[in-house]
Amino acid sequence: MTTDRDLARWRLQSQLLVAPVEGAERVVRSLVAVQAENASQSAWAVATRTTSPRPDDLAAALADGRVLRTHVLRSTWHYVHADDLQWLQDLTAPRVMPVFEQQLQPLAGRITALADAVEELLDEASDRTRADLAVALAERGEQLTGQQLMLLLGFLEVRGVVTSGVPRDGAHTYALFADRVPEPRRLDREEALAELAVRYFASHGPATERDLSYWATLTVTDVRRGIAGAGDRLTSFDHDGRTFRHAAGDAAASVSPDGHLLQVLDEMYRGYQDSRWVLDADGIVPRGRESSLGMALVAGQLVAGMKRSVAAKAVTFEIRPYRALRRGEVTAIRDAAARYADYLGLEPAVRIEAAPGE
Question: pTM for this one?
Fold first, then answer.
């Protein structure tokens, strides 16, 4: 009988955490999109899924435009492969756009002029930071608050006008979409729904139709159309009163490495909503307000919160257990901390707090 623990371990394999691949570009393409709101920590979300985690791997893919960091799928940042951005925007933008339009309502009468101005500025000189654009717009008499400009640029990303440019000294920049994606791949809607269904369930499965509906801001009806279009490329089973889908031929595998230190925005958490809590088979994680802490996973189970602090020579991981940790779990967490620190080029330090009731 399949258990929640089995599903969580299976997802470790689907999501490449125990089956890493060669290079950041392949990770992003495999997962379809990787949430990237926090640029520095989301870079680890990509790197930890590679065979040789290196900061310059994703950085190079972002610089040459193979991978873009932009608003797509939901009203937040994601890393996405350049080959996938156009068809994903075509598919999901109609339901994401109203979120930006509502937030930009105070600027409703200025949107067209502002969009034209941003497009002209990026046509004159590409790869501008948000601060650069704020100054240039102000010089044209278009004063915006930082929040307004952030929303405007997100809106223009979803519209397919702008996207990420070449990073400048690690800072995010903007460029015209047409310059960064000169030959966009387009699919008709039925093809796009089927492709998304196949690739989501292959990279995030086993998962439910409502997980995909949340992840891609699609209606359940559209998700079902995609599943139908996928045909025998997907298979399913029932568990806990729900139907879980995965790529045909996929099966759960052994878990190695056992421990993982991830941000709470990682796809292992944020990639689901309906069945997210297979990560917590014992129900030890509080279900109230969502924690801003990162996650310490062992064998696919969320056993502790994690806070990362970076200093000049070391990175400290503060571990806040939800229950008493077993010796093997502590070893797995320390091993995960060593891998993360090695990626950062720093020495690891792990501080484990007392568990509740200890």
Answer: 0.95
